[in-house]
Amino acid sequence: MPKILTKEQIEFYHSQGYLSPIDGISREEAQAMLKDLDDFEGSHGMSAGRLQIKGHLCFMRSFELTFNQIILDVVEDLIGPNILAFASRFWIKKARDGAYVSWHQDSAYFGLEPHQLVTVWLAISEASEEMGCMKIIPKSHLGPSKAHEETFHDKNLLARGQAIRGVDENDAVYMPLKQGQFSCHHERLLHASDPNKTDRQRVGLGLFFIPTHVKSNIGRRPACLVRGVDDFGHWDKDPTPKSRIDIDMIAHIKNAGRRYVDEKYKQETERT
Predict the structure, then answer these.
(1) What CATH number does the domain containing 167 carry?
(2) pLDDT band for position 272 (50/70/90)?
(3) Which residues constitute the domain of residue 75?
């Protein structure tokens, strides 16, 4: 029996590769997260968007969002009751700064087997089409993995500027979100986002969830059990933030994200 989604929504996700929009957190909670992010940038001179792969661990509030009942009920309906929070990223586009995300598949470089990760993209601010909300290609998760080019473009928010060429933009579906809403997409779904053309900052939090039976094919890595039980033991345990903004966590976050930015580490594009 599904927790929160209808049978039709679950079937749509598996056939189309995405769901959007879903009401998630309150405006007040989203505003408080924005305050944490602003305070972090003001104190440390860097955007939390630079914290690759596990940025949520720097903040108690975002760590607690990985246990949010509504979010986990939706995730459970899609991938089952035993769930690990594998990774995260704050996706921050300043007003009119030209930052974008090229077409890509998360499965190309996450190094997971089997490909059952679901991404929850939570709108910490409004994410309209003009602000550069996510766009996706429906059903693209059903085909083979695509070849990625590593561009390292300075305006591409992906760690290496990973890009898939030749995507037909006429097939794209935009997924605008109100503040506090979220979308879900399969890790093999083609997705991207355009620059923010407004005078307001656009902030989202991508939370990456996997069922506990999923393995890392690039060696042991840490994750956090957020629901159910883990009978497999494929993952080490992530540390828990100890304060509202846990600066001591940055070293762990940077170490976890090193392979995503360092050219000496091979990406996983040959995986199917």
Answers:
(1) 2.60.120.620
(2) very low
(3) 7-261
